[in-house]
């Protein structure tokens, strides 16, 4: 609980890297859903993303395990539910049009349960949009060939130690299909290359080769 109680979401939104990741996710939702559709935002923090969903004409419900995050969302005018995404969701079957799970699936011990629960709470034809760090971006593919661990599995990193279930796109698509979703092609934000002195980011490369990007953004449509 302590690890998830910081101002994570607001910090993400200040970074162009994460703003672009989130924009892809919001685009996937609004391309599929009509105005007024109800969307649960899992791991919502204080409701900042809920505000962006509302601006897109959707009806957000902020969902978070941290009580203060839910209170902050309510103060911001966003409906909120306190829940643990690692357990059964306290949501009626087939009651949601969309689910946004931004940077959350890599944190749970049982991703299959999370996907199954997202499938249950969505109506047929509803959409789940996932974003998650890519286990196999361009630089980490080279690092692995050189015998070095991919960045996303560093158990000693300041915040990456909270990432316990890293994904590639094929693995994520396999999980979505097993849970009853039709997965979309991936999108990504930036292909990133880090040196000791600076970090290089390319949006063009991420559009051309999304499975080499830093983040994976994937939608799954609930099959009937």
Give the secondary structure arrangement, pairings included.
Blueprint: H1 8-13, H2 16-32, E1 38-42, H3 48-55, E2 59-64, H4 67-75, E3 79-82, E4 96-102, H5 111-121, E5 122-133, H6 138-145, H7 169-178, E6 181-183, E7 191-194, E8 199-202, H8 203-208, E9 215-222
Parallel strand pairs: 1-2, 1-4, 2-3, 4-5
Antiparallel strand pairs: 5-9, 6-9, 7-8
Domain Methyltransferase type: 41-130
Organism: Actinokineospora diospyrosa
Keywords: Methyltransferase, Transferase
What would you say this structure looks like, in words?
One of its GO terms (molecular function) is methyltransferase activity. This protein starts with 7 loop residues before the first helix and ends with a strand. The protein has a 7-stranded mixed β-sheet, with helices on both faces. The protein is globular, with a radius of gyration of 17 Å. Helix content is 33%, strand content 24%. The protein has a single domain, classed as Vaccinia Virus protein VP39 (Rossmann fold). By secondary structure, the protein is of the alpha/beta class.
